[in-house]
Amino acid sequence: MTEGCKSVVFARFHPSEEVSGFSTFLRDVRVASHIKLVKLMASLRTGARIEKGKAHFARECGSYIYVYIMGTLPEYQNRGLGSTLLSHISTIADSKGLPCYLESSSEDSRRFYERHGYSVRDTLYIDKGSPPLYLMSRPMKPSVSRETARSQT
């Protein structure tokens, strides 16, 4: 988090710090109370597809860092705050020999993440006409292997 909460990133090691399914369900129920039933069903289907994407990534890569919230207040965007925070997450991931994974909800954020080494793995749509949701990942740095990273800790 930057000074004054102008930009924030939340990330966790996955799967070791994964939020329980029940906690996720309770969060979704609180959010769902404000959504029409049709939209809720579409959102739940998309949520299941997001979870499948993360599970596939975990099978492919093992542990990874999951960036689950990233944002900068609009009036502070394009000043390098988000880049600084994401670079910090990348440094941690590289030091641990881990890849990163996230979902991006706009074209602008997709381009931002691509500039930081992320690539689109899949694109989801909540329902017809909705904006895309990009499932993205960043590989661990080629110069850092998991064995090397583990031997340094």
TrEMBL record:
- Kindly give the CDD domains that the UniProt entry links to this protein: NAT_SF (cd04301)
N-acetyltransferase domain boundaries: 1-141
Give the residue spans that cross the bilayer: none
Descriptive protein name: G6631 protein
- Which gene is the coding source of this polypeptide chain? g6631
